[in-house]
Amino acid sequence: MDSLNFSRRQMLKSSACGFGYMALAGLSAEAALKSASPLASKEPHFAPRAKRVIFLFMHGGPSHVDTFDYKPRLNKEDGQRLPFKAAKNIEKSSQENLRLMKSPWKFKQRGESGLWISELFDNVAEHADDLCVINSMHTNGQSHGQAVMKLHTGSDSLVRPSVGSWMVYGLGTENNNLPGFISICPSRGHGGVRNYGSAFLPAVFQGTAIGDADTKAKEAQIKFLANNSTSALEQRKQLSLLQAMNERHLKEVKVDNEIEGVINSYELAFRMQSEVPTLMDLSAETKEMHALYGIDDKTTENFGRQCLMARRFAEAGVRYIEVALGNNRWDQHSGLKSGHERNSQQVDKPIAGLLADLKQRGLLEDTLVVWGGEFGRTPIAQGKNGRDHNPQGYTMWLAGAGVKKGHVHGATDEYGYYATRDKVHIHDLHATLLHLMGMDHKRLTYRYAGRDFRLTDVYGEVVHEIMTS
């Protein structure tokens, strides 16, 4: 062969028995697959501060005045009547009483930043200097169903795509063998599958559920992922035949989002079989790592497993991951002390472990961790020892990529009832999360039923004050 005409392709094909050429062919096929897939990684609108989100959902509404929003005056005036008008939407029993109830837990200033955090979250408090606490959240919907849907989809009454679906639609995924959006042990009520659904977005952008809130994390699986009765080669042949039939139908009808979604979902499901089981196998982690997340303790094992899985999926390139303490666990209309203590004991150490693990791996630099429920709870008592729902003012916190460390944004009144300063609506939070991921919430739209839809509808302002400069 003339050496002057010896190309790189010819060299790879002829050398080492052609293995170099095989590798090139494999990489080319992989590149073609990624470019053809709707889940392929996409360019953001502008430089992102975060690459992925882990949302720690506390279903039921944890009490902000007992966790991250210290109210000395509430403690001082315990048992006295609320000195201003209560919201009309609280239950009648609370409306007739209006008796202030102090927090049963002590607060301390934590870290160099001096954030006030109660003893319910002593382990998370060790990371106070990494937290960005928003004490001025407010939302729509007094009921769980309304508020949970608002938190997850931006709408409290209509079927709309979830936050994770919007993010994957806008950015794709970093790993072509995994879903872009995973929900670990999600709640079955108060929206259920809608909270990780794609609504009118193509089906490939919906979240993939691993178990549910009624399933122990140790036993949680993705439904129908494994096929032990048919070999991988036979499955590939069956899938190729089915996909060919779907493609032929698609050519005949020209446009069919459902068929396109099915085609992409089938291919993704086939590829997931090789990667997901390995990621969900926590036995590969060290004993020290299990201890960090509390997996070696009966109380914290379940949520610890969820948090460790979240880290593994984040590290593998999943764009949006939700971890839930579900089934309305934080809804203490009575028995506040015993209920909130039980819940915090389950999640405090695992969450602290997740933050520590992400930080030591360098993942916290481009991972955004979000903590919170659908609303907070009132500073007035419900019955003898409970608190009612409070969407008028509550707390959520963020940590990691792009947000200020050891920072408190906004405030509720002196009792913790209404958000009063630098208020942040749930639409504002959604706009801010998208912004941190490099997307303009006003530009991230999808044409459906004759109009352009977006996560924030016609609302939402980015909260630049919580971001690093």
Automatic annotation (TrEMBL):
Pfam families: DUF1501 (PF07394)
Organism domain of life: Bacteria
SUPFAM superfamilies per UniProt: Alkaline phosphatase-like
Residue ranges of coiled coil: none
Protein name according to UniProt: DUF1501 domain-containing protein
Organism: Gimesia chilikensis
